[in-house]
Amino acid sequence: MENIRDLLENFKKDFPEVYKKYEALGKEIHLEAGPLPEKTRWLLKIAISASTQHKRALETHIRKARSAGASDEEILHALLLILPTTGFPTFMEAYQVYTKHMK
């Protein structure tokens, strides 16, 4: 399987306009679509990426949440919130990302 970053670079090269619009949509939603503060938006993205098991996105969202002022306690709380809804195995996958790459 190709490295996901290489695959993304190929996608951007093959579909530059699609990627440009996709990236703009993400920025628009994150920055302009509602009243939630920056740190809260990143904590929500942590929970979403963890619950959908997108490990690379989870790594990115944890880093960005920290940059927005989120503490480890807040990040871990966001991860714990997925446990009753998505189950223990999904939580453990996310917790592994946190402990392996983020501490």
Please state the second-level CATH architecture of the largest domain: Up-down Bundle
CATH H-level name of the largest domain... which superfamily?
AhpD-like
CATH class category name of the largest domain = Mainly Alpha
Oligomeric state, counting identical vs distinct chains = single chain
Give the strand content. under 5%
Tally of DSSP helical segments: 7
Task: Provide key terms for this protein.
mainly alpha, 7 helices, AhpD-like
Which secondary structure elements does this structure contain, and how are they paired or packed?
Layout: H1 4-14, H2 16-32, H3 38-51, H4 55-67, H5 72-80, H6 83-86, H7 88-102
Helix pairs in contact: 1-2, 3-4, 3-5, 4-7
Structure description:
The two termini are 28 Å apart. The chain folds into two domains: 1-34, no CATH class; 38-103, Up-down Bundle (AhpD-like), CATH 1.20.1290.10. The mean pLDDT is 92. The chain has helices at 4-14, 16-32, 38-51, 55-67, 72-80, 83-86, 88-102. It is mainly α.
Q: What's the short version?
A:
This protein is 81% helix and 0% strand.
